[in-house]
Amino acid sequence: MPFAPRQQGRPIEYFMLYDVKPTGQSVGLYANRQIPESVVDDFGRSYVFAGIAPRRQNGDFDVDALRTGEFILKPGLLYRIECAQPPSWFGSLFR
């Protein structure tokens, strides 16, 4: 009996980084591209290289395997957000 494909609980778009600028040195190569040790997005948030993004058997990114604060930068790099300042008491009300 054929099985229906598993539905992803969280859309991948929530975990993708776009338009980031490298801010650190290169730590290696992946898919013939430099891997910056850190990047910054348009909002000024800083991310540090954490490894290669996990994938499912079909080759799609596995967002269910990501930890809190991890995001994917194509072609498959994993970055973890850096918290520059502790969260405010006001921000903690909305978690």
Notes on the structure:
The chain has one helix at 89-92, and strands spanning 21-22, 26-30, 33-36, 38-40, 46-52, 70-73, 77-81. With 95 residues, the protein is mainly β. The protein has one domain. The strands form 2 sheets. Strands 1-4-5-7-6 form a 5-stranded antiparallel β-sheet, with no helix packed on it. Strands 2-3 form a two-stranded antiparallel ribbon. A hairpin with a 5-residue loop joins strand 4 and strand 5. It is globular, with a radius of gyration of 16 Å. The termini are far apart.
Task: Provide key terms for this protein.
95 residues, mainly beta, 1 helix, globular
Question: Which descriptor suits the 3D outline?
Answer: globular
Determine the structural class based on helices, strands and strand pairing. mainly beta
The ordered string of helix (H) and strand (E) elements is EEEEEEEH
Tally of extended strands? 7
**Average pLDDT score:** 87
Strand fraction: 25-35%
- Tell me the quaternary state: single chain
The Rg value, from CA coordinates, equals: 16 Å
Helical stretch tally: 1
| Intertermini distance | 43 Å
Amount of helix = under 10%
Chart the SSEs and their pairings:
Layout: E1 21-22, E2 26-30, E3 33-36, E4 38-40, E5 46-52, E6 70-73, E7 77-81, H1 89-92
Short overview:
A hairpin with a 3-residue loop joins strand 6 and strand 7. The protein contains 1 helix and 7 strands, in the order E-E-E-E-E-E-E-H.
